[in-house]
Amino acid sequence: xxxxxxxxxxxxxxxxxxxxxxxxxxxxxxxxxxxxxxxxxxxxxxxxxxxxxxxxxxxxxxxxxxxxxxxxxxxxxxxxxxxxxxxxxxxxxxxxxxxxxxxxxxxxxxxxxx
Length: 114
Fold this sequence. Notes:
The chain is an alpha+beta fold and 114 residues long. The chain has four helices and four strands, in the order E-H-H-H-E-E-E-H. It has a single domain, classed as Aminopeptidase (3-Layer(aba) Sandwich). Strands 1-2-3-4 form a four-stranded antiparallel sheet. The longest helix has 15 residues, at 14-28. It is globular.
């Protein structure tokens, strides 16, 4: 793959992360989650979430860039399993722009996160 990069996201990436997250949710969960819930997921709300989360360092997000376009991300955080201690982390989410699904980018992000 030409010019593929994964780097840690910064608050300046919040808008792109919001777009990726909102579009991914709306398409992936259509017909599974009620439309009223999906309609409430907006780029603006997700952007504000990422701005705060990245500034507060409550989670870490790696952003996947292909050919200078941000196409996906993976978010890591503390593990939420009660049977594991704080030496363990957790992959909280992997999202791609829908037009990049099925092309192996999710696997690339997962391997990077692990």
